[in-house]
Structures are given as structure tokens and as C-alpha cells.
Design goal:
LLM class flavin-dependent oxidoreductase; 9 strands; 8-stranded parallel β-barrel; 324 residues; oxidoreductase; TIM Barrel
């Protein structure tokens, strides 16, 4: 079973953004050491609690501090940018780090309407041009544009991925012949159904075959009780976001003390339905069952904890359990 990491560089209470990014780097190094396939960095804007506003900049740092693991964006929010500049950025990374670079692309705003306006004029207009933007990016990455090439030209081209949370994104990825990452942790759709649609609609490019990743939320600890306790910070943090609060990830103690209403309890219960929380045996059993159900080629795990050490251990426990 292939496993990868998606990180948003979340800022915990009492932590600086620099410390959050340093923790994210250590997580990438943990993934490198424990056999994870990829380390992707999300793109978010205007969130004081997420330090991942510029994945391509951070990936240059991560690449120098890791050896084997693939590095990539999860995702570049393409409507904000000119495809040529995106191709240049990732060609630069691939020139530096060889056959280790992924370009995950998406079309979400990644922030508020005000932030979208500050980033780019006419974001929605660009969203409607997504098919043209993707075609243009493919041309630059594959160097098939007759008029303009994106330099530097790397020895191995970055791999292109489409990220999404719906049937529409799956069909789009399939029609463009792109590998597809389905964000189950952000979607109410059934992952198995979405991935089947992608495979059925897939149109090959250069004789490549359909390849799928499923992004899922996981917290793993030595015991079930410890995993539930560690996950409480993440759950309360998501609850606070649903109430319009953009604060740091709370400590376990603060999460326990948070005043939870009956309505909040239902929200937490719904959140947990889309998460895997447990000890190594429980988590790996759940992953295997999900893989059997969906036929997914790879899992991309997102884990948010108050303690960076708890996060790293969660990924370590999973990798070790799968080798046993």
C-alpha cells in the first residue's frame, strides 16, 4: 500500500508561523525516512492558522532537506496564476530535485472573497477558463507549445495531477488524461463511486494509465484512547472554523474545556465519520478495507494535531504497522 502526506502547515496555539513551517519540514523528513511516497503542501490564503500560502517557495526548502520523497503542491490554485509562470516554478524545482516533483492543480479559492480579490482580478472568470488554463499548463510542462518554452528545462518533467472533491473534477481529470487525487476528507461524496467514474471516463495521454490517490483524515496513536484524545484538538479546531473563528489549533486541554453544545456534538460526530482515528491496527485495517472498496492506488494522509511530535508519531505508527 502506497502512502503519502498532505500538510497545511497548521499553526498551533503558542506556535509561530516559522515554527509551524519547521514542523512541516520535520514531517517531510519523517515521511522520507519511513517510506512515504509524496509530501504535498496545500495552498491557503488569508488564514493566520495556516502557514502554507506559497507551496512552491516552501518546496524549495523541503527539497534540499529530503532525499527520496516526492514533493509537490496540493494544490496550486490555477485560476490565480498564469500557467506559464506555474510551469517555470515547477520546472525550476524539477531542475533542482530531479524526478521528485509533482504539480497538483485545483480551482478552489483557498480563502475569503476579499483575499481572492487581493490575489487576482476576476477569479471566477478564470475558474470558467479552467479547461484552457490546464491545456496551456500541460503544453508548457510537456514542452509542446510551438511558440514558448518554460525554462529551465528539467531532465525529468514534473508530474501533473488534478485534485478535486466531486464527480465534476473526476470527469475533468479523466478527460484531460491526468492522474487524479480525490479529497475524501473534504467531500461528502462516496470515494469509491467518484474513482470509478474517473476510471470509466479516462482518456489516455501518451499511453499512460489512470492513477488515483484518496486524501483522508487520520489520527493514529499507540492506543485508541490516546488517538481520540489527540484528535480532539483537530475536531474542536474544525468546530471553531465552522463558527467563523480563524484561531490556532487548540491544545488538548483547551479542546477538553471547550463549551460544546448539542449541535456541536452532532457536527463532531459527522466529522468523525470522515476520519480514521485509532491505534495502528485499527487504522491499517480501515485503510485496507477502504482500498479494497475503492480500488485506490494510493492514500494521501492529512493529520492535524496540537503537538508536532504527535503528528509525526501518527505517520510513523501507520508506516510501521503496514510493514508488520
Amino acid at each position: 500500500m502506497k502512502l503519502s502526506i498532505l500538510d497545511q502547515a497548521p499553526v498551533a496555539d503558542g506556535q509561530t508561523a516559522k515554527e509551524a513551517l519547521e514542523a512541516s519540514l520535520k514531517l517531510a523528513q519523517t515521511g522520507d525516512a519511513y517510506g512515504y511516497t509524496r509530501f504535498w503542501v496545500a495552498e491557503h490564503h488569508g488564514w493566520s492558522s495556516l502557514a502554507s500560502s506559497s507551496p512552491e517557495v516552501f518546496l524549495g526548502y523541503v527539497g534540499t532537506k529530503t532525499n527520496r520523497i516526492r514533493i509537490g503542491s496540493g494544490a496550486v490554485l490555477l485560476p490565480y496564476y498564469k500557467p506559464y509562470k506555474v510551469a517555470e516554478n515547477f520546472n525550476m524545482l524539477a531542475t533542482l530535485f530531479g524526478d521528485r516533483v509533482d504539480i497538483g492543480i485545483g480551482r478552489a479559492p483557498g480563502g475569503s472573497a476579499e483575499v481572492s480579490e487581493a490575489l487576482s482580478d476576476g477569479f471566477l472568470r478564470q475558474v470558467f477558463k479552467m479547461p484552457e488554463l490546464v491545456d496551456e499548463l500541460i503544453g508548457y510542462v510537456e514542452d509542446t507549445n510551438a511558440d514558448v518554452s518554460a525554462h529551465p528545462t528539467p531532465p525529468a518533467k514534473p508530474e501533473l495531477w488534478m485534485l478535486g472533491t466531486s464527480r465534476k473534477s473526476a470527469v475533468f481529470a479523466a478527460e484531460k488524461g491526468l492522474a487524479y487525487c480525490f479529497g475524501q476528507f473534504m467531500s461528502d461524496e462516496a470515494g469509491a463511486d467518484i474513482l470509478n467514474i474517473y476510471r470509466e471516463k479516462y482518456t489516455s495521454r501518451h499511453d499512460n494509465t489512470p492513477y488515483t490517490i484518496m486524501g483522508i483524515s487520520v489520527v493514529c496513536a499507540e492506543t485508541t484512547e490516546a488517538a481520540e484524545e489527540i484528535a480532539s484538538s483537530w475536531l474542536v479546531w474544525q468546530l471553531q472554523q465552522s463558527h467563523g473563528l480563524n484561531g490556532a489549533v487548540p491544545s488538548i486541554e483547551a479542546a477538553k474545556a471547550y463549551d460544546i453544545t448539542p449541535e456541536d456534538e452532532q457536527k463532531i460526530a459527522d466529522m468523525k465519520k470522515k476520519m480514521i482515528i485509532g491505534n495502528p491496527s485499527q487504522v491499517t485495517s480501515a485503510l485496507k478495507a477502504l482500498q479494497n472498496d475503492s480500488g485506490v492506488d494510493e492514500f494521501m494522509i492529512i493529520t492535524i494535531t496540537f503537538s508536532p511530535e504527535d503528528k509525526r508519531k501518527s505517520y510513523q505508527y501507520i508506516a510501521q504497522a503496514l510493514k508488520e
